[in-house]
Amino acid sequence: MPIDETALVQARGLTKEFVRGRRVVDDVSFVIRRGETLGLVGESGSGKSTVARLLLRLEEPSAGEVRYRGRDLLSMTSHEMRGMRRCMQIVFQDPYAALNPRMRVKQILTEPFEIHGERPSAGLASRLNEMLRKVGLDESALERFPHEFSGGQRQRINIARALALRPEFLVLDEPVSALDVSVGAQVVNLLKELQKQYGLTYLFISHSMPLVRYLCDRVAVMQRGRLVELGDCEQVCGAPREEYTRRLIAATPEMPAAM
What is the pTM of this model? Predict the structure, then answer.
């Protein structure tokens, strides 16, 4: 795959080998265009989350290349990557494990500004209140601890933290799989609204084809570490080429009416 300077994110030949030469990710290539949502689907263990971590350089690949706005992330120093991380954030699957139980929400949301040495121009308190409002919470949440919130509310706090520095690219690693169906639908609709409002670009990781069809513009299907199908969502979900993709579609229920 040639370098695509118009893509926001591009993976070329990404490979990750673990012990005994087993490839968890094997020669994966795709682009993510500005403003779109690319769905990355597959069964548990197919390599989806590893791809996400390689894209953000939370893990180092065994081979391949990752470009962001045309820049090679893998050649960057740790100092250069620190600056890039303001533009690239992740929302993890488990809203319980992703928040420090000993920190109040105010500390959790303030931490990104402290790490990057940034002071919001309108003032920190104003930005924190704005962040909470955007995800459907109010300022009374600031003095509370994570255990005082429901799972859906905790995921909203995770999303607020990810948006703190106003990134343009978010990796959403199965962000609703730990939530019940109706709460998950609310979070997905929130993500759609935030994307529209801020012009965000998403990589949405899921095992649910109906959910991906609802949220995503294009979809990439992974099986045993390899990319086996890639295309527009309607085409892949409506007329998949691969038997594996057809099995994924058949294995997941329809979306709730709330969507």
Answer: 0.92
